[in-house]
Amino acid sequence: MLLSNTEQMPGYRIVQHLGLVSGNTIRAKHFGRDIMASLKNIVGGEIKGYTELLTEARNQAIERMCHSAEQLGANAVINVRLSTSAVMSGAAELFAYGTAVVTEPLEGGQ
Amino acid sequence: MIAGAAGTGHFLVNVAVPLVLVALGFVAGRIIERRHFRSLSLREARGGPVLTNLKNLPEGRTLVSSRFCIGSVVIASDYFKFFGAKLKTLVGGRLRTLETMMERGRREALLRLRDQAARTGADVVLAVRLETSMIMRSERGGTYPAAEVIAYGTAVKTAAAAEADG
Fold first, then answer.
1. Torsion angle, alpha carbons of B23, B29, B34, B39, to 10
2. Chains A and B: how many Cβ contacts under 8 Å?
3. ipTM of the complex
4. CB-CB under 8 Å, A11 with B33
5. Which DSSP symbol is given to A73?
């Protein structure tokens, strides 16, 4: 699956638009990571456990978006946007959405 | 005797512990922040793909390949900053301490995006977007500010237009 966050897929021509596709996941932090995070809140700086957790979750949201694009028969998703929101304290929703399209390579473009 | 012990316990929990945390946050937080800024400037000076939020390739370049890239970081404030910011909201105005926290997060996320783009062999990252979401952690004593910053864009490998024609 080709991904792009611009309105075109660089190097490809869009043949057909298949509409909006999205993927989401809600993750809760777990206790062990939380202890480290509370310690980090005293001295500040990056909370690596959370960064990893959210990266992992975001990849899953993107994967789900790609999966629903595949089901529509698309081979690319353009104009991809990502967003994160804290739905409650201790849980975050990762959301990815874009437009599923069918593309073909530009002649002589590559 | 018992009442005295309870009083001391109360004093420890309500005054002494927060004071120690503020002092620890002030000293350790400052050292860690300085070290982080130094590492950021060092890595930024190393160079890499050009980041832009334009959608199109620069004039005279043609595309070779493209890839979607993401850089992200979760950054927390230290206890001193948290405490100071809380006091500052009484009078309002600029919260410098939280400004530096957000600056660290943004610069780190952009660097990670650039590193990931560099690994794919790209020389330009198009349509870069920055997004921030506050991840508040509520515990006794209030909510601790922590933010997630993500930077994403389409990393492209380009070639000079003349080269591609020939």
1. 160
2. 131
3. 0.84
4. no
5. T
Q: Which residue of A has its CA nearest to B126?
A: A6
What does the DSSP assignment read for B81-144? HHHHHHHHHHH-S--HHHHHHHHHHHHHHHHHHHHHHHHTT-SEEEEEEEEEEE--EEETTEEE
Q: Does A26 touch chain B (CB under 8 A)?
A: no
pLDDT in tens, A63-73: 999 999 999 99
**Domain chopping of chain B, boundaries:** 2-165
* DSSP structural state of residue B18: H
Confirm if B79 and B25 have CB atoms less than 8 A apart. yes
Please give the single-letter amino acid code of residue A42: I
* Residue of B83, B129, B148 to mutate, interface with A, max A Cβ within 10 Å: B148
B2-165 is classed in which CATH architecture? 2-Layer Sandwich (3.30)
